[in-house]
Q: What sequence folds into this?
């Protein structure tokens, strides 16, 4: 049937718990193939999980009227140097971003990506944002 992109409305004004609840509701609707037109309209930013089907990199395409999209690839265990210069195994998540440069400039996307990376690497910082 192709890609369907339901979305959570007004996410900026919701708590992480409200977002989790709405996400669970959308997952139930998806499993039952019961999305409404309202569920699929009005999005501004998309996250797509290509890692769930084994993908690593992709060039995600923005669907109007959205402003940006991120494609999450699969997590890979790779050798990396630690702070002591020793090689150790590290989980690496590949993410591909696309933005409409008429709305979001590249530097803003880089700052967003770096902030997002920091929060994924240290989830306790997300808890600080909840307080």
A:
């Amino acid at each position: 049937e192709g890609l369907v992109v339901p979305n959570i409305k007004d996410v900026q004004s919701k708590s992480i718990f409200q977002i989790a609840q709405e996400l669970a509701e959308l997952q139930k609707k998806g499993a039952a193939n019961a999305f409404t037109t309202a569920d699929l309209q009005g999005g501004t930013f998309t996250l797509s999980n290509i890692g769930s089907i084994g993908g690593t990199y992709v060039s995600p395409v923005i669907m109007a009227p959205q402003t940006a999209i991120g494609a999450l690839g699969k997590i890979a265990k790779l050798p990396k140097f630690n702070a002591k210069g020793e090689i150790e195994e590290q989980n690496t998540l590949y993410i591909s971003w696309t933005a409409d440069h008429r709305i979001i400039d590249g530097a803003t996307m880089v700052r967003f990506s770096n902030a997002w990376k920091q929060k994924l690497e240290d989830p306790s910082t997300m808890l600080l944002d909840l307080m």
Notes: The mean pLDDT is 90. The first strand starts at residue 45 and ends at 49. The radius of gyration is 17 Å.
